[in-house]
Structures are given as structure tokens and as C-alpha cells.
Amino acid sequence: MSTAVRAPVTPAPVLPPAPARPLRYALVVTGLLLALAAAALASLALGSVRVPPGQVLDALTGRAGPSPYRTIVLDVRLPRVLLGAVVGAGLAVVGAVLQALVRNRLADPFLLGISSGASAGAVLVLVLGGGAGLVGGVTTTVALPAGAFAGALLALVLVYGLARRGGTMTGARLVLAGVAVSYILSALATLLLVVAGRPEQFQEAMFWSLGGLGSARWDTLALPAAVLALGVGVLLTLARPLDLLLVGEEGATVLGLDTARFRAAVFVLASLVTAVMVAASGAVGFVGLMAPHAARLAVGAPHRRLLPVAALGGALALVLADLAARTVAAPQDIPVGVLTALTGGPFFLWLMRRRPDGAAP
Fold it and tell me: At how many degrees (to 10) do helices 303-327 and 287-299 cross?
């Protein structure tokens, strides 16, 4: 009597939940746009010098003649608000993508050491460039973002390699590897400054270590805005493969995705976006952790809807944080990275308590 041998049945992969309803999505996007506009107007009006709302609107619409208020609004505060929106959106989008790539909700450019790597690369450029600084010139427009990109990519490769062992990667190992690499690269940047013997560069190093938007000018907005637009555009075309990663490594492969090649390409893109944002604003932490979580609660996990909402949420979060940084201890500015850490740190601890391994459901 022969016994038939059945081949093992591979369970069908489970795709992410269906997208949010169009009306709900439209309401969320509209609400975020209105909130962002209100936060931007408040940021233009409030600060060490208060500008009347009517003067703000006159300056924005071109009806105001030459005046101190017009200069404050258009030349000082508006570039800062726009840079905050661009950087916040970029960090939030990168955070959402990293969480999909490693299937871990604890992933974030700051926690994974990418921001520290970008800071170390930027500091290296400053040291080798003889202190060209942040004001104008080739160092700001080309070499500084290039050095930050190299540092961010190196940090990401190190963290991913250290966290992945035996083909698996846990949330705890990922966070520990990120913290370790972040400390190492931060110490390396400090050592470079000490060895270089240029004490005046410590102020620029502190800019990256704490994060801030005080150096925002119109000529520094073009590159971050262009990289953000390019990065979000490319990632939106990759929304379906990013969704496939949520079903797991085997499920994505069954559905035809070359996961290794796809991850490598998107890691490079994420490092580029992070590097340009860090070169413009310094290492601002936790925006890339909090905004994607809030966006998922609002519109679900599919990335075609998640990425725009995360971008708007990140922009709103950083504009509000910068407004608080300028007004809480006015006329002194608090580094915006300090405030995002004060809010993001407790959020991270809550997330760790709620889901210790950080794995995506």
C-alpha cells in the first residue's frame, strides 16, 4: 500500500490593510494643510519681535512697503519657516520608509545613527575645508551635503550590518546598533575638531549636534526643497514595493520583489535625503519616528497615502517645534533638536513599552 506524499502548502501572503476611504483621506490632508498654514502664520508673527498679523499678510502679499516688519517677515522668518517645513517633511518621509525597509516601527534616521553619520561627514568637510563655514561658497552648496551623504550612508551600512545576524534582525538589536554607531561617529567628529585645533569650529559642530534652523536663508532652501520633491516623487512610484515589504521577506519574494536590490537602492535614496536635511538644519531627532506613527493612525499603512500625510505631519511638527524654540525663552533661541528630543524621547519609551521588539504588525 503506497502512501501519497503531499507537498507543503505555502500560505498566501497577507497584504496590508485596504487604504483609508477617500473622504477620510481628503479630510486628513485638508486638516493638515490648514494646520500647517496656521502654524506658519504664527511663526511669522511671533518671536522676539512681534509682528501684527496685518503686517504679516501685507508682507506676504507684496502690499507692504520697505519697513523693519517686512524685513523680519520676508528675509528672516519666512526662509526659516519654509526650511523647517522642508526638513520636517523629509525626515518624516525617510522615517516611514526606513520602518518599512527593516519592518520595524522603531526605525528613525536619528535612532539608526544616520543623522549622526551625516553630521560627522559634514564636520569632516568643515575641517578639511579650512573652516569655510556655512555661509556661501562651495562648502555649503556642494561639499557639505556630499560629505553628509557619505557619512549617512556609512552609518546606515554599519547599523544594518551589525543588527542583522543569521538572516534575522530584532528591534532591540537594531536600536542598540544605531545608538552605538551614533556615539562612535559623534565622538569621531569631536576628535576631528580637537585634532584640527580650530576652536571656532566647535560652534558649527554644536549646530549639527543639537539641530537648529537659525542659519536658514533663501539661497539655502533650493537644494533641500529639490531633494525633498525628488525623493517623495520617487518613493511614491515605489509605494507598491514598499507595501509588499510589509508582508515579510518571503511573501514579498513570492510576489516578485527582489528585496535585496530594492532595499539597497532605497537605503541610498533615504541616506541622500537625510544627508541634505542634516546639512541644512543639523541632527533633529524623533520627527521621523513620531510623524509616520501618527500618519498610520490617520490613513493606514499603504504608502501611497501614508507618505504625503507623514510629510505634512513632519512639516507641521517641526514648524511648531521651531516656533516654541524661538518663543519659550525669547529673545534666546533654544536648539530645536532639544525640543524634539524632549517630546520624542517619551514617545519612544511609550512605543518600546507598547511593542518591545518594534516589529511591524
Answer: 130
Separation CA 259–CA 142 (nearest Å): 32
Could you give the CA distance from residue 353 to residue 348 in angstroms, rounded to a whole number?
A: 9
Q: Do 174 and 299 form a contact (C-beta atoms < 8 A)?
A: no
d(CA 228, CA 94): 10
Work out the pLDDT band at 204, boundaries 50, 70, 90.
low
**Given its phi and psi angles, is residue 21 left (phi above 0), alpha (psi -120 to 50 degrees) or beta?**
beta
Beta bridge partners of 356: none
Looking at residue 361, what is its pLDDT? 46
Instruction: Confirm if 360 and 104 have CB atoms less than 8 A apart.
Output: yes
Residue at 93: amino acid letter: V
CB-neighbour burial class of residue 295 (10 A; exposed 0-12, middle 13-18, buried 19+): buried
Q: Treating both helix axes as pointing N-terminal to C-terminal, what angle do 114-128 and 259-281 enclose, rounded to 10 degrees? A: 60
Q: 236 in helix, strand or coil? A: helix
Q: The pTM is what? A: 0.83
Q: Does position 314 have pLDDT exceeding 70, yes or no?
A: yes
